[in-house]
Design brief:
Length: 191
């Protein structure tokens, strides 16, 4: 190790590589050996291992834990560079899970992702892709949710059942005209 500029620069960086060993962890990336950066980066990785997060969620989470803005920005940039943080992939996975397992409406998914800090164009692209991939028919989603809810409402007065079903579907984010049409059709046939 000579005393030139090359050696001082290399001593500031960890020499371990992310892909160096099958047992290496994402923390073992080549990164500046900065005392404030490492804890922030490690906490960000821990948070992402527990559950997927959008960039804005992760920033907010780290800020709440009093990490410096500079270290948060560097950590986020590094996570994006490595592919661990990607709002487009996050939005796709989120939309797919909400559509397939919970039967959420397009508007409800948009609202949830917007609340999580995902950009509107990323949200719209993800939802369109998921709806096309899964062959989702929003009318079928509304009807399935309504039928499921109606099964537990058989003892209610028809007017109360109708009102509660409408409110339930509206809270799930379905379009008012679609809700009105579905409630009318199903409560008419259910008596």
């Amino acid at each position: 190790c000579g005393g030139g500029p090359e050696s001082s620069k290399s001593s500031r960086f960890s020499t371990r590589s992310f892909f160096s060993s099958p047992h290496s962890s994402p923390v073992a990336v080549t990164e500046p050996a900065d005392q404030g950066f490492r804890p922030t980066y490690s906490k960000a990785l821990e948070a992402l291992t527990r559950r997927a997060r959008s960039t804005a969620e992760l920033e907010r989470w780290l800020s709440e834990r009093d990490h410096s803005r500079e270290h948060i920005e560097r950590s986020i940039a590094r996570l994006k560079e490595l592919g661990f943080l990607d709002d487009a992939q996050y939005a796709l996975a989120f939309a797919r899970s909400r559509v397939t397992t919970r039967g959420m409406s397009r508007r409800r998914i948009q609202a949830e992702l917007a609340r999580r800090g995902v950009a509107r164009e990323v949200i719209d692209t993800a939802i369109a892709e998921v709806m096309a991939d899964e062959g989702v028919d929003e009318r079928a989603l509304v009807e399935a949710a309504a039928l499921k809810k109606l099964s537990g409402m058989s003892k209610l007065e028809p007017l109360v059942r109708r009102r509660r079903l409408y409110a339930f579907l509206a809270r799930r984010g379905y379009a008012a005209d679609l809700v009105r049409e579905t409630v009318s059709r199903l409560t008419r046939s259910a008596g």
